[in-house]
Write a structure and sequence with these properties.
The structure is a homodimer. In chain A, strand 3 and strand 4 form a beta hairpin. Chain A has a six-stranded mixed β-barrel with strand order 1-5-2-4-3-6. Helices cover 38% and strands 19% of the residues of chain A. The first copy, chain A, is an alpha/beta fold. At the A-B interface, strand 4, helix 3, helix 5, helix 10 and helix 17 of A face strand 4, helix 3, helix 5, helix 10 and helix 17 of B.
Chain lengths: 517, 517
């Protein structure tokens, strides 16, 4: 199609109508098959169209209907995300035309055919992503074109473009520390212990977290059991000004918004590469204004990284990119052979966290130790602290109750939780099928079981572990307890756990579980 | 999610409702946000879901609504394609669950990471494509994973899997000839002349064609001006039994259905590779039962192939794949520097075709000559014909009126056209801006202009050319006339043509236009 000056005049306009359709992050519009304005025959269902009012343009996927109650012939229905992003009132006059694919897609086609991206091309792609100009299919094209190989120039350009495409936080403090775990390990809610320790010491640690995507709980889901996490940038600044630290959901803070779009498609395609993981994490942390970053890479047979060699390659990549952007990145490989803590699922994990902070007798020792170790690394970024004194200082802040007090301050500053926070009363115990010593625990299977039981949507659903690797168990002894709110979901999780518990019990005693592989 | 035997019992079912939404080829379902059966919180808008009734399963993209007039809390709304494919009556009880991505996507991920496909993996992918189990995003992943490199084993496995995935036609005759042009050249409606010549000679030529995707007319669109083309497999068999040849739309014949899905996504991404083009064409022809195939590769600066070297590479690939499957493939490069015939758009092209068949004085000589040349190649597949006698025999059948008579038989057998077939009365002439000789004609620009004028939807819209390469023109002399049904579309096309006519007029006389480059 060509542009001509009289186009808007020669084409009848349509009235914007809001249609009650939740279409995820995809812009969708609905037009009538009888619309005289559109000649809908030249549009096809599910094709891409361009919606225009004066200089404002939005791209969307088109549905066509004969149902006049949904949209009339002189109307165009905008789904929730399209209505929100187009931001024009109901009844506004707009024109619609077939959308040309975003221009930056030319570079993606070139990359598919073996060329490499110029930095300006990557900028244009990230800009188009950020403005929702790519359909999911086009996002997939970009991801896959970059998945087989990506030069270091391309990677650096991508990180830069992503980091500068949304909100960029600035903090008054010269040292802003942060931590990030690449995920995959059930439990492992260390951030909720590390942040209060580090903030209690006096360092700035404005932590944003994600919600669970494929796991039974993200840090944001678990923190939400204790406090409100759904805060704006301004509220986040206030909390950090008051407490030095926060534990909020990143969803409203708009850090590296292109990353959120890439993640949604990566998840649907179950596709992730080292380069894309590094670009995702470093771009978010640069946008968050972090100066010092600790990365936790759990290694184990059912973790995201299977062995030390994989972890080493990823470490080098993090260091390379971090150095380029002047962010001090430290990467440590940790024991990822089994869950950390005893609870899996938001309420159960929050219980572990508070038990550690409160120095309760039954608090999970592995979660405490790992959190202290991570906090120690972060504390040593304080020039005032003697080299090697980080661990002792972290333990002092935890044992003295200073960290617990800081956590209460953060909770008060963020505001009270409004979600249901009781542990699921419907339970089912899963028992050892043999005598012996636990030699392996399948993290993937426990994640699946906890999700089947309802986590993270049902905050109190999940799993409480009674045993870890190295424990001796007898046939019939309970290994763990599944909790749920919903009987059907409990039954499904129990059936799956009976089929495959995720625990392997061997005859001989394995290596100690305390050391990293 | 896990499967358990009591799942269907423990989960409330939903009643199928048909919702009036045309969603192209994508399955879409709508559920209420208040649906007790679904716990829609665990589903996200635009996520993929699995719809199940007994053993029948369909995958679809989910929309969520609060609008009770669209779907009630105990209902699930199926868009037109989903309703058609699920093929269960309104009110049937179904369950819905989050869809796992199709298993064959694992192989696609492997390919993205640099592995090659096993034949069984390609079989599984094509099967999943054919059963609409891939979302557009997943189709894009498959296409792009194969775009940067494809081994010959992969290509052969793909052709085999695609050819055997849908209808496979068999014909009583031992020789079944076919022709195919890779497209890109306006006019060029040779099939509609070649088929009657070849069928009049007595060879079997059951031609299926596509509708225009990005061009102003496909052979099916143009033939539709003269006869019904929207026929079933059984009707096609009857026409061929009666006439030896046919000219029908392939859309209802279901030859290589995976190809239709791949084409739709390739078009949206503007992505096509030689391997994918060859797989598309050969799989369709194998499924159509062709034994001898002539491929027309137009070469020219604005054609799909820019030079003889590109055409040669593509020819080798066609020959390699054809040989493997025992189909006799002959590939010829033709002059693709300018349109063939004088008309562009269905009615105008149909006029050219009938003028050639009727041996009218004003019939376009280039269309006649090219058709005779192609028909000559096909006729020589007849063992009864002396080597070298093809061209003379083709001319005899055309000049004698035998081809015209055969065309009338085919038109009668397929049934009368029901579409509007008058030439657009609204016209605008585009004039030479200089004195001189026409040295170049931009095929892409003429295609765009004809589409802007309304073709192929408006059958009588398009362009009538008054001059070709080599003609001497004077400033102000008309180069071509744009036809349209709609004033706004005529204005848009005229404005675009005024800006860029697509004709280049030079001072000196160019090479003769009659020879292939």
């Amino acid at each position: 199609m060509v542009e001509s000056p009289n186009r808007d005049n020669s084409r009848p306009s349509l009235n914007v109508r809001r249609v009650n359709l939740d279409t995820g992050r995809e812009n969708v519009v609905v037009i009538s098959r009888h619309s005289s304005a559109l000649r809908p025959e030249i549009f096809r269902g599910f094709s891409r169209v361009e919606l225009r009012r004066d200089a404002k343009v939005v791209l969307a996927t088109l549905l066509i209907t004969d149902d006049d109650t949904l949209v009339g012939p002189d109307e165009i229905g905008l789904s929730e995300p399209a209505f929100r992003r187009f931001a024009e009132p109901v009844g506004s006059l707009v024109t619609v035309s077939p959308a040309a694919p975003p221009e930056s897609l030319d570079a993606v086609r070139g990359k598919i055919q073996g060329r490499t991206f110029e930095p300006a091309e990557i900028d244009a792609i990230v800009k188009d992503l950020t403005h929702y100009r790519y359909s999911d299919m086009e996002v997939a094209a970009f991801l896959i074109s970059s998945a087989s190989f990506m030069t270091s120039h391309e990677l650096l350009a991508l990180v830069h473009a992503m980091a500068t495409a949304g909100t960029q936080l600035k903090w008054p403090s010269p040292i802003v520390v942060d931590k990030h775990c690449i995920g995959g390990i059930p439990g492992n809610r260390t951030s909720m212990i590390v942040v209060p320790i580090v903030a209690a010491h006096g360092l700035t640690i404005p932590k944003t977290s994600s919600r669970a995507i494929t796991s039974p709980a993200g840090t944001a889901d678990t923190m939400e059991v204790l406090a409100r996490v759904d805060v704006s940038v301004d509220e986040m600044r206030e909390v950090v000004a008051a407490c030095r630290g926060c534990l909020v959901w990143g969803g409203h803070v708009n850090l590296s918004p292109a990353d959120d779009i890439l993640i949604s498609v990566k998840r649907q395609l179950c596709l992730d590469t080292s380069e894309q993981m590094v670009a995702s994490i470093i771009s978010k942390k640069l946008a968050a204004g972090s100066t010092h970053l600790l990365i936790d890479l759990p290694v184990g047979p059912t973790a995201k990284l299977a062995n030390a060699a994989e972890a080493m390659r990823l470490r080098k990549l993090f260091e390379f990119v971090g150095d380029h952007f002047g962010i001090a990145v430290e990467v440590i490989a940790t024991d990822g052979r089994q869950p950390i803590g005893n609870g899996i699922g938001p309420v159960l994990e929050a219980g572990d966290v508070m038990a550690v902070l409160a120095n309760e007798a039954g608090a999970p020792a592995d979660l405490r130790e790992k959190s202290l170790r991570l906090a120690a690394h972060l504390l040593e970024y304080d020039p005032q602290l003697r080299g090697g004194a980080g661990y002792a200082r972290a333990r002092e802040l935890l044992d003295s109750g200073a960290a617990l007090k800081k956590m209460q301050e953060i909770i008060d500053a963020q505001g009270p939780s409004t979600c249901r926070n009781d542990i699921g009363k419907l339970t089912c115990d899963i028992h050892a099928a043999d005598d012996g010593v636990i030699t392996e625990i399948d993290c993937l299977q426990l994640n699946r079981l906890a999700r089947t039981a309802g986590a993270p949507i049902d905050k109190g659903a999940g799993i409480r572990l009674f045993h870890k690797i190295g424990d001796r168990v007898e046939n019939g002894q309970p290994l763990y307890r599944i909790h749920a709110y919903d009987q059907a979901e409990l039954d499904m999780a129990a059936a799956a756990a009976t089929c495959k518990s995720g625990y392997i019990i061997g005859a001989r005693h394995p290596q100690s579980a305390g050391t990293a592989p």
